[in-house]
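Question (not urgent): is this output format expected?
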Amino acid sequence: MLVAGLLLAAQSGASTERVVPILDAPRIALEGIEPDHASLEIVTVPMVFPVAGKVEWEDTFLASRGSRRHFGQDLMAEKMTPLVACFDGWVTLHKAKAAGGHNWLELHGLNAWRACYLHINNDTPGTDDGLGSDAYAFAPGLKDRDYVRAGQFIAYVGDSGNAEDVAPHCHFELWDSMARAVVNAGPSLLAAEHVELPHRP
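Got this back:
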């Protein structure tokens, strides 16, 4: 279940939540940034939900992960479920350097926010062989620095990296590019537009 306080803030329009219009995003000055670059400020960035179709998630922002804190939200979905651009911007692709390696993507938004998509697929469909990075990680033809629009297909859900021993999911992070701080993506995900199928480029 989502944390009750987050639900209340999202549903009631409580004063702790700040909706950030896209044109205002570059002027954000986050307060309360922690030493590990995590901000405790509640911000809602207009976006498309990053997973197309069926997905499950709960708020785990800053949950303990041993010696570190969890900076993202784990969006649980079947392997090979399409991932879509959450807002307009350009992409940086981080391709696995060897079989079984980690695939992930950064989306640098025109709104001065940066979204990170981790654990992108590295398997041949129907397997867990770690040999599918070249053909089944990113959208066909997608290249570094390509411009994408919100809702456009960019990659596939998978279990690469340190997710090999857990269920497939997209670890999704939302960073303020100006403050270089990660925020809780939960409010933005709650308010996001869901798409069943990716939009055409």
